[in-house]
Amino acid sequence: MATDGRGETSEQSIDEPLSIENENHLDEVIEAREAVLVDFYADWCGPCQMLEPVLAELASETAAVIANVDVDEHQQLAGAYGVRGVPTLALFADGEQVEQLTGALPADRLRRLIEGCTNE
């Protein structure tokens, strides 16, 4: 599979969570895709670890891109989105933020949110 300079596939779907490298990278992903679910997480966070396999499953089953932002590594980026706790999930549709939720949410709820933003 061909990749661009950031390791992002050049094909239509991304079937696994995508690690965000910086604010410009996140902006590019949000602008390029119909639906993006951004997971602001920390490695030390238990609920974040519980959410990880749920997000991996959603990445493979939905048209949305799942993007991961490590809040310890990207503190300014997390602050720019008003992240005060982890995990925080921000949903973007057509380049605009439409939802922000905190906590480890069940897969079915996240799937419904994503499907509401895509043509699935």
DSSP, total strands: 5
Structural class: alpha/beta
Strand neighbour order, sheet with most strands: 1-3-2-4-5
The coarse silhouette is: globular
Give the domain tally: 1
Q: Could you say what the CATH architecture is?
A: 3-Layer(aba) Sandwich
CATH superfamily: Glutaredoxin
> Proportion of β residues?
15-25%
Radius of gyration: 13 Å
Query: What is the count of helical runs?
Result: 4
- CATH topology call: Glutaredoxin
Strand count, sense and barrel status of the largest sheet are: 5 strands, mixed
Which assembly state applies to the chains in this document?
A: single chain
Round the mean pLDDT to the nearest integer and report it: 88
What is the C-level CATH assignment? Alpha Beta
What is the rounded distance between the termini?
A: 24 Å
Helix percent reads 25-40%
Helix/strand order, N-terminal first: EHEHEHEEH
Unreliably modeled segments: 1-12
